[in-house]
Amino acid sequence: MNKAYANRMEKVRPSAVGELLMLGAQPDIISFGGGYPAPEVFPVDKLSSVFADVMSQSGPRALQYSTPEGLLSLREKLVLRMKQSGISCDLDNLFIIQGGQQGLDLVAKMFINEGDVIVTESPTFMGALIAFNPYEPVYKTVPMDEHGMDMDALEEILRTNARVKFIYTVPEFQNPTGVTMSLERRQRLVELANQYDVMILEDSPYREIRFQGELISPIKSFDTEGRVIHLGSFSKILSPGLRLGWVVAETEIATKLCLLKMAADTQNSTLNMYLADKFMEKYNMDEHIQSIRVLYKEKKETMIEAVRQYLPSTVSYTNPEGGLFTWLTFPQHVDATTLMRDRLLPEAKVAYVPGSTFFPVDEEVNHCRMNYSGASKENIIKGVAALGTILKEYC
Ligand SMILES: Cc1ncc(COP(=O)(O)O)c(C=O)c1O
């Protein structure tokens, strides 16, 4: 049979790293590869109680269709939370999506024509590339340091590329590096976007998982021209299984994005929107998030301490103030994919995500992403120690 796929399917392929990650997900492996929240932070009992309340008080409505924008009372709560974080918005600007990932897909569908330039951090979130790739953009990437994107490099890209559609950034505790963009750079980013007339896509699922340092205002809070699209998510602050996130955008953009959402899936699960809404009504969301921060801080410190103790001094690492990941840089001759496939997995049963997969262009092979939220503290120490032993031999 002639499977006459559309041209864009050329860009939709499983990656070699994906197969390696499947191996890393086996139960006898200590995996730093996932991006999962710690299961112990899920408020199972509270959500059971909320579920019972929803069923007894609003059962038929919770099981009915709602609207593509999502449950009104949930959107009202999110508008308030956004305002508290410095983003001025209204109900017209905010709607509910199936996690941040759907936001990436909808924005890609709405803005990217074949050959358009999308600017990303280097490295960047793999899930964003998966969402953008089918629309066949050209990637231009901006190097980062410990304060985020290099703004001079960004300006050079904007100055020399007429077809830039948007700049994609994960400003807090970036996936994969754990780096946070400084306040000054956020302001400069918006100034540059205004000057060169491009959009910004601010993907912010980790913003509230800050366990150290000062909260920094979202990029959207500096937006005076409606050119920043902000994506938020319940995945890391409540549960990824509920598949709930939100978009904040200028009214016309929000309306158009919501039309695309309607075409994709009609709406989010009414029941899940009720659960999140009633959870926020019945319990204190900020207290819940605080308990996540406390646990992740301990886990992050355990991992960084183990990295300092067990890895060779030629390995550098980021020390994130929040989020789920640290990023290791091995000596240049060490290919993190080969190391994991040939030594770390078979000998030590330890996994990470090889860094090459996070580079849209100009792949660098000597990095890996290490997740600390998913593993126990005991396994963090055991796994990093095993990585240290193998790395010392390998180097
Ligand atoms: C930077 C970033 N954006 C978006 C997502 C998508 O998350 P969700 O769709 O669960 O909100 C993730 C998930 O790990 C992420 O790391």
UniProtKB/TrEMBL annotation:
InterPro entries, per the entry: Aminotransferase_I/II_large, Class-I_PLP-dep_aminotransf, PyrdxlP-dep_Trfase, PyrdxlP-dep_Trfase_major, PyrdxlP-dep_Trfase_small
What Pfam families does this protein map onto? Aminotran_1_2 (PF00155)
MF terms per GO, please?
pyridoxal phosphate binding; transaminase activity
**Which keywords does this chain's UniProt record carry?**
Aminotransferase, Pyridoxal phosphate, Transferase
Q: What domain of life is recorded for the organism? A: Bacteria
Q: Where is the Aminotransferase class I/classII large domain?
A: 57-386
Tell me where the transmembrane regions lie.
none
The prosthetic group or cofactor this protein requires is:
pyridoxal 5'-phosphate
Which BP terms does GO give this entry?
alpha-amino acid metabolic process
The family classification in the record reads: Belongs to the class-I pyridoxal-phosphate-dependent aminotransferase family.
UniProt subunit comment: Homodimer.
Per its record, how is this protein called by name? PLP-dependent aminotransferase family protein
Which source organism does the UniProt entry give? Alicyclobacillus mengziensis
